[in-house]
Amino acid sequence: MGYSGARGGLEAILAAERHVRHERDHAPVPWAGTEQITARFRLAVDRVMGEAGLYDEPTAAHAFRQAEGDTLEAAHLVRAHRSTLPRLARSEPVDPDEMVVLRRIVPAHRTPDGPQLLGRTSDYTGRLLERPDGPPSPNGQVPAPVAQADGERRPRRFSAMLREMDLLVDHRTGADPEPFDVTRRPARPPAPRSAVLASMARAETGALVGLWYRSILGPDGNIHEVTLGEVRHGRLPLRVRHPHTGRPVRIGTFRATETEALEDLDGAEEDRARFDLGYGLCFGHNERKSIAMANLDVACRRFGASLEQVLLLTIDGLDSGGFLEHLKLPHYVTFRSMVDRKLAVRTTGERVRATDPLGRDCR
Amino acid sequence: MITELLSEIDDSAGRAGLLDDGARREIRRATLTAVCVPGYQVPFGSREMPVARGWGSGGLQVTLAVIGEPDTVKVIDQGDDAGVNATNLRRMIAGTEGCEESTDSRDATVIQTRHRVPEQPLTAEHVLVLQVPVPEPLRGVERSTAECDRMHAEGDYAAIWVSLYEDLVRNGVITRSTGYPVLVDGRYVMATTPIPRWDVPRLHRSPHLSLFGAGREKRIYAVPPDTDVEPLTFDDVPFEVEGGHEQQCALCGSSDTFLVEGGGGRTICSDTEWCARVAEGDADLEAHAKQAPLHLLPDPARRVRTAAPVTLVARPEPARRPVVSAAEWTLQVAGLGKVHGLGGADAVAGTGPEHGTAISPTTGAIVAAWDVGFDVAPGEAVGLIGESGSGKSTVLRCLVGEESPTAGVLHLAAVDAGATDLFTLDAAARRKLRVDVLGYVQQDPSAGLSLNVSAGGNIAERLTAAGWRSYHAIRQRAAELLDRVEVPLSRMDDPVKTFSGGMRQRVQIAKALATDPALLLLDEPTTGLDASVAAGVLDLLRGLLAERDVAAVVVSHDFAVIETLTERAVVMQLGRVVEHGLTDQLFADPHHPYTQRLVAAARR
After folding, report:
1. Residue B7 belongs to a domain with what CATH number?
2. Domain map of chain A by residue range?
3. What are the angstrom distances between the C-alpha of A32 and each of A23, A39, A71, A293?
4. What number of helices (H) and strands (E) belong to chain A?
5. Identity of the residue in B55, B172, B179 whose CB atom sits nearest the CB atom of A348
6. What is the ipTM of this complex?
7. Domain boundary among B216, B231, B246
8. Percentage of residues in chain B having pLDDT higher than 70
9. Full residue range of the structural domain in which residue B136 is found
10. B102 - beta bridge partners?
11. Which residues of A touch B26 (CB under 8 A)?
12. Do B55 and A325 touch (CB under 8 A)?
């Protein structure tokens, strides 16, 4: 068979790959080791783990390096890697009250139970660009260790106090359905709250922030500014059931960010004498994501269906980014078909009416 | 033990597959379901692939699920084996699955493709896997995914038919280019991925299996061999494939293939394999020509003449249809009750006219209607009259199916000869009744019409829902109806949003009558209109009810409207029937003080 049309494409791809590899891996600078990345680019690594939905710092660091710092691309690498692995066990549910906090703030209260613990943050540091010539000289200022008393390490929630004062709407029905696994089943509206929360936990951070802010200053939307009752970053235990004994065993810890947002209820059918609570939880240290998530969670409960479709179907970075980038693929067959219709419209000789079409499709 | 397990995993990982075996099985199961229900989009737990969403991640998962070592894979993009996306996918599949790769469709057993069906006629030995960016054919006409799901489940495809009707009205041709919607196996409307129209007829009753994978939207669907795949078009509007400009491939000379721009003003085959083989004389041209859709090339002479005015054939007024049913009533409702809030039937005590309230003293529930019953004889119009808040509109909404009642039964002679209580039917069955059994005219025309759709298109919505598939017959019918309700035919193709309130109401009435329903439900049909406009619409309704053999329920707060349109009437106050009888007698000699008030108001 003389036809070997596939050759040109392959050579072009291989050349592009060589370009990337050469300039990324053989740049004339020291190699960025995995530890370098996890230690110095902690927030990027955390973001990759969160958007990938897989908690492993070295894996995320490898992906971050391979993706040349593109966090979305890195999340893609991690998720595609995850697709190749069998699922060996399911983790046991974690009670977030077990979190050992590394940082914890309660904006809704001046002196809550437990500490206002700033922890590792540059929130309150002037954003002044530092341009060091080289590595900083070692100094002896080691930060004080995080508080050790249990009340300090596992502070009581601000929302617990509100519950005692009967200031929170109680949505707990007593039913404890299995959480919806968005990695195994496609979540489409109508879906349980766990599906919406899981979708947000894996969402692209910017998509959540953008969606939230659109409501604040955009032409439409129902999302209000909440008061934060709790923003935490800390460690949680990971447990699985032992294959022989069947008992939960702790096999590690992971860091997560958690938010509780207080919503002022004012609707006709709402309990105006109480607050509602929105919840956010994501892997790693990513307060922006967790806060947006908590705010969107309560907005979804209050304002329902259309926001649910948005949260379930439009905030995944791999979905939106991939579909956007697919526009770069060749489309000359479809375009040729569109040209054919343009010419057909001309030849009908009909007067074109000034009306809009019913429905516009993606192709 | 653990180390054994881990080493086992390491061994299986040695295959370096792109999907673990559990995922493969899951996707295979979804694929089998798709084959069993042709054209239905089967949700599946789409995994992330080493290619981006939108770059064939769905097609790749389907291919990986069905392929094995004895297979030979071919991958094309736009018909081209050398496209970068095709090349990338092919090396990934062949590199990890241990199967052969080929560019010759005759050698391949699995062909993954983006945007084309190969020119080489496929056989029962082939599985064609199409990459799908947007699997939902209804997305253009309906943005809510839950509503799209409902439309598929109920086979409710009027909206997409109206979009084709509107397209023809606007443009004289159907301008959908690729991804043309098709009806599969007479059941599901399916998006044909963006393959050109040229390839659509080539899926019809084809010997090969076609699988469609949408990774981003997490759907798989299929067209099994020998399955009907019919492009959605009206019976009298030919489906058109691309071409018809006397062009041929500059490389191989073919004139029966899908051609694309080849640079320098030339056109060439998009299918590079076929093109090369034709040039070499290694192609079965006869078999190919047999399945090329040359009979569907555009023929301007057969196109519709949209803007040409519809001429009304002078036809005698339809004779009053003889009453077919022996039943004494068209509609019978008994014991109808609707309680908003807690308590159900227990909330009724202490409400009603004698208590001066509709609010339950025990539960606070609103008893909107209770123990309402009446029947409507064939051809008869019955009025429901009362002040606002008397429950008359609630009764009508229960009849039409927009609300479910707390108590009562409803029978229509047209449904199971009156044997079935409609209140026991599910929402889908109730919606179906609104296609050709019940005509419904709402107070606000914008609630009953699509304002962005033309007057004719609004009527086409009912007709296509009822199965009409002739464009010209639909236009003729719409023109007759619009003419009857005195909407000028010059406005037939204008969107309803450009119409005045009175004209909109006339369009809504025409739409309600489109399928000659046995029963017409009119909810305050003149209330929102200026007095003189209302009088005109009232005249029209009186004429329509007189000339047609349609039963009607008319809801109004205005005794003048009830008096004009109905023979009998039911008077409602605070959710109860307080008086009923012949409309003339009620109007001339009202007994109940409340009725007397209503009559006095109408006479002022």
Report:
1. 3.40.50.11310
2. 9-82, 96-119+150-171+179-321, 330-363
3. 14, 11, 16, 33
4. 13, 4
5. B172
6. 0.90
7. B231
8. 93
9. 2-231
10. none
11. 184
12. yes
